Amino acid sequence: MSITLKDAHGIAGMRTACRLASELLDYLTPHVKPGVTTNQIDQLAHHYMTQVQHTVPATLGYTPPGYIPYPKSLCTSVNHVVCHGIPNDKALKKGDIVNIDVTVIKDGWHGDTSRMFMVGDVGIAAKRLCALTYDAMWHGIAMVKPGAYLGDVGHAIQRFAEGQGFSIVREFCGHGIGQVFHEEPQVLHYGKPGTLDKLLPGMIFTIEPMINAGRRDVKELGDGWTIVTKDHSLSAQWEHTVLVTETGYEVLTLSSGSPPPPAFVQAQAAGSLPAALAQPASLAQA
Ligand code: MF3
Ligand code: CO
Ligand code: CO
Question: How many domains does the chain have?
Fold first, then answer.
C-alpha cells in the first residue's frame, strides 16, 4: 500500500466535496447556541446533506475494523471530549466549547473538516485553547510543500502547542483522504523534522490536531466511540483537508464562513517570511 496521488479529475472532485463539507459547517453555525441539543444539530446536518447538498454523510454507519457502526451523521465533541463524540439529547449550555466534525461524500469523494464553536460566553482558558489549537493546525498546514516531510508538519504543530504549555493527543492523527475516508498516510501531530513520508504534488490529507489543556492521556467511553481526556481537562480540535500543490498547498475545506488564516500565514503568503513558497492558492487569488 502507498499514498495515492490525485490527478486533475480527483483534485476537482475533492475541491467540490471539501467545499461542501465547509459549507455544511457554515450552515450549522447559527444553530450552535445554548439550549440546542447535539442530536438536533445532527438532524439539521443530515437533512442539509441529503436534501440540499445531495451529499452522503460518511460517518453514518462507518465501521472501521474493530469498531461498531458509528450511529450519526457528524461528530460533536463537547468540552473534555477529544473526538468522535456521538450526538445526544443533552442541550448545549453557555460556556461549552464543542467541536463539530463533518465528512461529506460527493460523487465518491470525501471532504473532511471540523471547527470549534463557543456556546455563548466561554471562559478565558477555553477561548485560549480554541484559538491556540486553530493556530497549531495552521502551523502544520504552513509546512506543506513538495519535498517537505510529514515529520516537518507534526514537528511544527508540536513545537508550537507544547511551547505554549498544552499537550497533544497521540492516539489519533490526520489521514490521507479521497475515494476512501481514511487512507495512507497517517498524519501525526507531533514528530521530528525530515522524517516520515516526503510530500509530493497531488497528495491530499487532513491535518486535525487534538490539543488538551491538561495531560495528553485519553480514554474511550463504553459506547465504543467517544474519546475523552483522562484528567477531564478541556480538549479542542480543528481540521482541514489539504492538497499538496506544485509550489505549496491548497486548503480545500474553505467556504465563506471559514475563519481567516492566522496573521503569520497571511504574512507568509504575502512573501514577507522566508517560507513564501507555501502560498495558499486561496490567498494568492485575494
Ligand atoms: N471525521 C473524523 C476524522 O476527522 C472521523 C470520524 S469517524 C466517526 O477523521 F465514525 F467517528 F464519525
Ligand atoms: Co479526518
Ligand atoms: Co473529521
Answer: 1
* Ligand 1 atom at shortest distance from the alpha carbon of 102: 1
How far, in Å, is the centroid of ligand 1 from the Cα of 45?
15
Tell me which ligand sits closest to the C-alpha of residue 85: 1
**Considering the domain boundaries, does residue 277 fall inside one?**
no
pLDDT along the chain (286 residues), means of 10: 94 99 99 98 99 98 98 99 99 98 99 99 98 98 98 98 98 98 98 98 99 98 98 99 98 98 92 53 40
DSSP string, the chain: --PPPP-HHHHHHHHHHHHHHHHHHHHHGGG-STT-BHHHHHHHHHHIIIIII--EETTTT---TT-PPP-SSSEEEETTEEE-PPP-SPBP-TT-EEEEEEEEEETTEEEEEEEEEE-SS--HHHHHHHHHHHHHHHHHHTT-STT-BHHHHHHHHHHHHHHTT-EE--S--EEE-SSSSSEEEEE-SS--TT-SPBP-TT-EEEE--EEESS-S-EEE-TTSS-EEETT---EEE-BEEEEE-SSSEEE-S--TTSPPPPHHHHHHHTT-STTTTS--HHHHT-
Domain with 132 in it: what CATH number? 3.90.230.10
From 75, 205, 237, the mutation candidate for ligand 1 (largest count of ligand atoms within 8 A of CB) is: 75
